[in-house]
Specification:
Helix 5 links the parallel strand 4 and strand 5. By secondary structure, the protein is of the alpha/beta class. It is globular, with a radius of gyration of 30 Å. The strands form six sheets. A six-stranded mixed sheet has the order 2-3-1-4-5-6, sandwiched between helices. Strands 7-8-13-11-10-14 form a six-stranded antiparallel barrel. It folds into four domains: about 210 residues, P-loop containing nucleotide triphosphate hydrolases (Rossmann fold, 3-Layer(aba) Sandwich); about 80 residues, Beta Barrel (Elongation Factor Tu (Ef-tu), domain 3), CATH 2.40.30; about 110 residues, Elongation Factor Tu (Ef-tu), domain 3 (Beta Barrel), CATH 2.40.30.10; about 180 residues, P-loop containing nucleotide triphosphate hydrolases (Rossmann fold). The protein has 16 helices and 28 strands.
C-alpha cells in the first residue's frame, strides 16, 4: 500500500463520472459510509442538515450525534428498521471527479436489489464489520460483483473504532478475503480500514491508524480508471419501438447499447440479415449526425426493411451469433424455486420470448466457490444453466457486451421477475441437426381421417373423476368413428416417465415430456385425450403453445379437495395424511386451478355421463373432432 498522492483539481467540464456500489451484509455500515462521504464532500445543504438533525433525534441509532445513515435510508420502513431495503442512488462531486453511488440492501432477502445496483457500477465498496469478519453475504455480493464484470473492489473494513483500531484484526480479515476472492478475476482489490461513523479513512486519512499507509476511500475512488466498454464496442441498437405517426415517418426508437452510428452508415437487422442505411438520427432536440452509446434516439432508414420491437441492429461487418440455445450464469430471485423444463419468459435486450431452463449444470457454493450438482435453484442461489429459447436470438457474452449479454427471466403466471442472468456463450451442439420436412404432414393425415386433431387436456385433483370422464369421452368419440388416443398419468409413469418422482421439479419434467408426446399425436392427426393432475398453470400453458391455435382444449374437472378425500378411490389421501406419501397435490404440494378453461366440469353437480356427453357435444359443435364432411 502507498500513501495517496495530492490530486489536482479538474474543471467541471472535464470531470469523469464514476458509478460505484456499496454492498455487504446487514448493518455493516453502508448507509453511514455514504452519508459520511456526502457530509465530508460538503454535499449537504443547510436545510438538509437541519432535517437530518431532527430525524436523528427521532430515528437515529448513535445517541445525540447526527446519524449520517439517514441521508440515504430515505424510506420510512428503512428508518424504522434501521436497514436498507431498496437501492438508493446519490450524486456527489469533488474537485477531481463526479460520482453516482448506489446504496444497496445487505439483507439476503434483497439480494436482487443489490444485483440491480451492481449491474451499472464501475466499482464496488464491499463493507465488512471488523467485529464479525467475512460473512456468507459478503461472499455472495463479491461473487455477484465478479459475475457482473466489476473490476475494482474496495474492501472497507468498517467499525475499526469498535476493535480499538487494531491492525492485526484488519490484516486478518484482509487475508481471509483475498484468499476467497483471488480466483474471481478482479483487476484491483484495495483494502481500507475505516470508521464510517467518525470519518476515519473515509474522505481524510486517519491519525488513529498509523500502521495503515494507504489512501482514504475517497482518494482511491478519485483515481480508479473507468473503462468505456460500451463506447468502444461494436454498434448495437435494440429496437424498443417502431414509431410511425404518419405515412411519411417510420422511425426505429431505442437506446444505443454500444458503439456509435453515423448518418449514411449501413446497418443490418440481425434476425433477417436485411440491410439499409441510416438516413436520419432523430431526437426531441433535433437531428444528430452521430449517435453514441447511452443515447436514446430514433433511427430512420433509407430503405424500409422488416423491423419490429425486439430486433437488434448492428453493422454488417460486426454481427453477433444467432442461436436458440445458450449457456449462462443465473441468479435466482424468485420465492418459488427455479425448475428445469419449466417455461419462462426471457427478456434479452428488448426481445421477450419463451424459454426453458434445459439443464442446471452446476450450483455455486458461495462459501467455497465450488461447483456442485443440483436440480433446482432457490432464492439467491447462483448456478450455471443452459437455456432453449422458442426461436433464435442474438447471443453475446456478458463479458464482451454488458448490455446485450444480460437477461432476466419472468414468471409466466405472475409476470414477476424471478431471475437475472449473464450470457456466457451460444450453444452450437445441434447445428448439424435440422428438421426434416416430410411430404405427408399433419394436415394431410387429418384430411385422410376426416377429423381435426386436438388435445383434450383433463386436469383436476386426484379423485376428481377426470380419468373416468376422459375414458367415457374417448368411448363416445370412438363410437362416432373418431380416431383417438388416451394418455393417463399413472400409465405414463409406468413407462416413459418411470424415472421421475413427485418433487416439484419432477412434476414439471413429467408434464414437459407428456407435452412433447402430445404434440406428436396431434401431428399424427389424432384426437388426443390427456388425463393428468398437471398442478401448475404455467406448465399447462407451455403445452398450449406447443401446438396450433385451437388445438389445446383445457377441461377442468372441479371437485373440492374435501370431496376428493371422501372418495379417495386409491387410498392416496389417507396415506398422504398419515405422512406415508409426500409431495401429494392438495396436501403438501400446490394445485393451481385453471382460471379460464375451455370447459369446466362441476364434479359435485354433474355426473360423469352428463359431463362426457357435454364435452363430446361441445367438441363436435366446433368441428374439433371431425372435419367438414366427416363423421
Amino acid at each position: 500500500m502507498t500513501t495517496s498522492e495530492t490530486l489536482a483539481p479538474s474543471s467541471e467540464l472535464t470531470k469523469s463520472l464514476l458509478r460505484f456500489i456499496t454492498c455487504g451484509s446487514v448493518d455493516d455500515g453502508k448507509s453511514t459510509l455514504i452519508g459520511r462521504l456526502l457530509y465530508d464532500a460538503k454535499m449537504i445543504f443547510d436545510d438538509q442538515l437541519s432535517t437530518l438533525e431532527r430525524d436523528s433525534r427521532k430515528h437515529g441509532t448513535v445517541g445525540d450525534e447526527i446519524d449520517l445513515a439517514l441521508l440515504v435510508d430515505g424510506l420510512e420502513a428503512e428508518r424504522e428498521q434501521g436497514i436498507t431495503i431498496d437501492v438508493a442512488y446519490r450524486f456527489f462531486t469533488t474537485d477531481r471527479r463526479s460520482f453516482i453511488v448506489a446504496d444497496t440492501p445487505g439483507h439476503e432477502q434483497y439480494t436482487r436489489n443489490m444485483a440491480t445496483g451492481a449491474s451499472t457500477a464501475d466499482a464496488a465498496i464491499i463493507l465488512v464489520d471488523a467485529r464479525k469478519g467475512i460473512l456468507t453475504q459478503t461472499k455472495r455480493h463479491t461473487y455477484i460483483c465478479s459475475l457482473l464484470g466489476i473490476q475494482n473492489i474496495v474492501l472497507a473494513i468498517n467499525k475499526m473504532d469498535l476493535v480499538d483500531f487494531a491492525g492485526e484484526r484488519f490484516f486478518k480479515i484482509v487475508s481471509e478475503y483475498i484468499g476467497f476472492a483471488q480466483s474471481l478475476g478482479f483487476g484491483n482489490i484495495r483494502p481500507v480500514p475505516i470508521s464510517a461513523r467518525f470519518g476515519d479513512n473515509v474522505a481524510n486519512k486517519s491519525q488513529r491508524m498509523s500502521w495503515y499507509d494507504g489512501p482514504s476511500i475517497l482518494a482511491h475512488l478519485e483515481k480508479i480508471p473507468i473503462a468505456d466498454r460500451e463506447g468502444t464496442g461494436p454498434f448495437r441498437f435494440p429496437v424498443q419501438w417502431v414509431n410511425r405517426p404518419n405515412l411519411d415517418f417510420r422511425g426505429l426508437a431505442g437506446t444505443v447499447a454500444s458503439g456509435r452510428i453515423e448518418v449514411g452508415e449501413e446497418v443490418q437487422v440481425v434476425s433477417s440479415s436485411k440491410r439499409s442505411r441510416v438516413s436520419r438520427i432523430v431526437t426531441f432536440d433535433g437531428d444528430l449526425t452521430v449517435a453514441e452509446a447511452g443515447q436514446a434516439v430514433t433511427l430512420m432508414l433509407e430503405k424500409d426493411v422488416d423491423v419490429t420491437r425486439g430486433d437488434l441492429l448492428c453493422r454488417p461487418d460486426a454481427t453477433p451469433d444467432i442461436a436458440d440455445q445458450f449457456q449462462g450464469h443465473l441468479l435466482w430471485m424468485g420465492d418459488d424455486p427455479m425448475l428445469q423444463g419449466r417455461s419462462y419468459f426471457l427478456r434479452l435486450g428488448t426481445a421477450t420470448v419463451p424459454v426453458r431452463v434445459t439443464t442446471l449444470k452446476t450450483k455455486i457454493d458461495i462459501n467455497t466457490l465450488e461447483a456442485r450438482p443440483g436440480r433446482t435453484l432457490a432464492l439467491n442461489e447462483i448456478g450455471v444453466c443452459t437455456f432453449a429459447a422458442a426461436h433464435p436470438l442474438p447471443i453475446e457474452s456478458y463479458a464482451d457486451h454488458r448490455r446485450t449479454g444480460s437477461f432476466i427471466l419472468i414468471d409466466r403466471a405472475t409476470n414477476a421477475t424471478v431471475g437475472a442472468g449473464m450470457v456466457q456463450y451460444a450453444l452450437r451442439r445441434a447445428t448439424n441437426i435440422q428438421r426434416q420436412l416430410h411430404t405427408i404432414d399433419k394436415g394431410a393425415r387429418a384430411r385422410l381421417s376426416g377429423q381435426k386433431p386436438v388435445i383434450l387436456w383433463f386436469t383436476g385433483l386426484s379423485g376428481s373423476g377426470k380419468s373416468t370422464i376422459a375414458d367415457m369421452v374417448e368411448s363416445g368419440l370412438h363410437r362416432r368413428g373418431v380416431q383417438t388416443m388416451l394418455l393417463d398419468g399413472d400409465n405414463m409413469r409406468h413407462g416413459l416417465n418411470s424415472d421421475l418422482g413427485f418433487t416439484t421439479a419432477d412434476r414439471v419434467e413429467n408434464i414437459r415430456r407428456v407435452g412433447e408426446v402430445a404434440k406428436l399425436f396431434v401431428d399424427a392427426g389424432l384426437v388426443l385425450l390427456c388425463c393428468f393432475i398437471s398442478p401448475f398453470a404455467q406448465d399447462r400453458a407451455s403445452i398450449r403453445e406447443l401446438v396450433g391455435v385451437d388445438e389445446f382444449i383445457e377441461i377442468f374437472v372441479d371437485v373440492p379437495i374435501e370431496e376428493c378425500r371422501k372418495r379417495d378411490p386409491k387410498g392416496l389421501y389417507k396415506k398422504a395424511d398419515a405422512g406415508e406419501i409426500t409431495n401429494f397435490t392438495g396436501i403438501d404440494s400446490a394445485y393451481e386451478p385453471p382460471i379460464d378453461p375451455e370447459i369446466r366440469v362441476d364434479g359435485m353437480r354433474e355426473t360423469a355421463k352428463a359431463a362426457s356427453d357435454r364435452i363430446i357435444s361441445w367438441l363436435m359443435s366446433r368441428g374439433g373432432g371431425v372435419d367438414d364432411g366427416g363423421i
